[in-house]
Design goal:
Oligomer: single chain
Distance between the termini: 22 Å
Largest sheet: 9 strands, mixed
Number of helices: 12
Helix content: 25-40%
CATH architecture of the largest domain: Alpha-Beta Barrel
CATH superfamily of the largest domain: Glycosidases
Strand content: 15-25%
Number of strands: 21
Strand order of the largest sheet: 19-18-21-16-15-14-1-17-20
Length: 497
């Protein structure tokens, strides 16, 4: 039996309901708006990370003058702010017109180009003073349009994954980390100067690292300190391991949350060594494994992105971080690649399928968003059962439970679990939500349909299955205990209001 106490263990602001929305320019398209509308309606995410896409903004006119067209940027940010989202802006890539080279292009995509035929220019700027002016004009514009009170609550970071050739200096080999960090230091100094020219209230940081923590982060932070540059947060990406092949090479289990903790500890060690342990840490991309633009065609195991396994991993992930000594400002699940789906359940990253069917991971986010800010004491769980009991100032309760083993395999035996409360809940409304193999799981339903391509009628059934609905709803009696059936990788939320 799991017994929930009324004793508050800690105050914990929600750091886990944030995500990365890519491609950024899908915000102006109907399918992108549908996703954001649903997320806003369900309050599934607080902060959205996007690229500033300076390549859509900066150009040189026929007289050779540097000019700015903010219309596409404003459409995107207007839509996010009107839907109540906070924003993390990644300033990059390099516009061709100010780049040192226009030849260093990458797609970082399943296809040959990014969305709408675009590419990343990974080159440093030809002139760092021009780069500073571009960053200044961008930050000045968003402050003038949205106001410093709002924008000072956002995060603005310099570039994305500058430690790897996919995003920075693609003409150099992967191992040329020292060359990249040297150029990135100049990039960040100009970026910092630009921010201070606009307002010291802006929250800026970086470097949104992909891989090279010690080799890149330490020399960059040492440079920031030596130059006394403005820095308000440190960001990095944590996929635990690069992918299933990488996990096998390393001799680790790809589905083990400890992979993320190990990488996070390395980052904390590096930050502490440089004397910046007081700064917030933003995990502005995370996922169970890497292989962001791969799908089940190349890696069959990526089917977990469609099933109950993903929300079970998410629930375990945030539970362990809540009870750890680590302080994380934001966890941002990466959704990039969602535009490349050609079938319904293909294992690409995303909250929804091609036909707007909500995946279990999306509903896992919806459940987690219902947690309150006061973490309560509890007793009675085992090594495979993860519990986050919470309450708000009005004594409304939300309890998140997940059930999984170390590798989130399906051989975990079904068990019956009872949840009881020290404080009397009689007369209150109890609601139970569940994500498992048979509840809120369109993919498992699709499997049972036994078809290759669902019909229009079947798509409607699958969409309805993706709508989160209670499995139980009633008024609690005296000494009420809640009995649950837990199956492998189930995720359950109990609310008492």
């Amino acid at each position: 039996m799991i017994t929930i106490s009324d004793k508050i263990v800690k105050k914990q602001e929600n750091f886990w309901n944030h995500c990365l929305f890519h491609p950024t320019d899908a915000i102006e398209d109907s399918w992108g708006k549908r996703i954001l509308d649903r997320m806003a309606e369900d309050r599934a995410a607080k902060t959205i990370r996007i690229y500033t896409m300076l390549e859509d903004i900066v150009y040189i006119d026929m007289n050779g003058k540097l000019c700015y067209d903010f219309r596409a940027n404003d459409l995107r940010l207007d839509y996010l702010t009107e839907n109540g989202f906070d924003v993390l802006l990644a300033v990059g890539a390099m516009p061709d017109c100010i780049a040192k080279s226009s030849k260093n292009k990458t797609s970082v995509s399943f296809n040959k180009t990014r969305y709408k035929g675009k590419m990343f220019n990974t080159s440093p700027p030809a002139d760092y003073k021009v780069w500073e002016d571009v960053c200044y004009e961008y930050m000045k514009h968003i402050v003038e349009r949205y106001g410093i009170e709002r924008v000072s609550n956002w995060r603005i970071q310099c570039f994305n994954e500058p430690d790897i050739p996919d995003f920075f200096m693609s003409d150099l080999p992967h191992e040329a980390v020292a060359d990249r960090v040297r150029e990135y230091c100049k990039l960040y100094k100009a970026f910092s100067n630009a921010a201070l020219r606009v307002s010291d209230e802006l929250k800026i940081g970086g470097p949104a690292l992909a891989l090279y923590i010690e080799e890149f982060l330490i020399p960059w932070l040492e440079y920031v300190k030596a130059e006394n540059l403005k820095i308000d947060f440190i960001s990095y990406h944590n996929y635990g391991c690069l992918g299933f092949y990488n996990a096998k090479q390393l001799g680790v289990n790809a589905f083990n949350v400890e992979n993320h903790f190990n990488k996070h500890q390395r980052l904390v060690n590096a930050v502490t060594k440089c004397g910046y342990q007081h700064l917030p840490i933003v995990m502005d991309e995370w996922g169970t494994v890497g292989g962001g633009f791969k799908n089940i065609t190349q890696v069959p195991q990526l089917i977990f992105r469609e099933t109950e396994v993903f929300p079970a991993f998410f629930a375990k992930f945030i539970t362990k971080f809540i009870y750890s000594d680590y302080i994380v400002d934001k966890l941002m699940l990466c959704l990039s690649g969602q535009h490349e789906m050609t079938e319904e359940f293909t294992g690409f990253r995303g909250f929804f399928t091609m036909s707007s069917i909500a995946k279990p991971i999306y509903n896992g986010f919806v459940l987690a968003a219902k947690l309150k800010d006061n973490i309560l004491h509890f007793s009675g769980s085992d090594n495979n059962t993860f519990v986050v009991p919470t309450k708000d100032e009005n004594n409304n309760l939300s309890v998140l439970l997940s059930y999984s083993n170390d590798d989130l395999s399906e051989d975990l035996p079904e068990k019956t679990e009872t949840v009881a409360f020290d404080k009397d809940i009689s007369g209150k409304k109890v609601t139970v939500f569940c994500i498992d193999k048979t509840h809120t799981n369109p993919y498992r339903m699709f499997e049972k349909m036994g078809v290759d391509v669902p019909s229009k009628e079947q798509l409607e059934i699958l969409r309805e299955e993706g709508r989160l609905k209670p499995i139980a709803e009633y008024i609690a009696g005296e000494n009420e205990e809640i009995t649950l059936t837990l199956t492998a990788n189930s995720c359950i939320l109990i609310t008492v209001e």
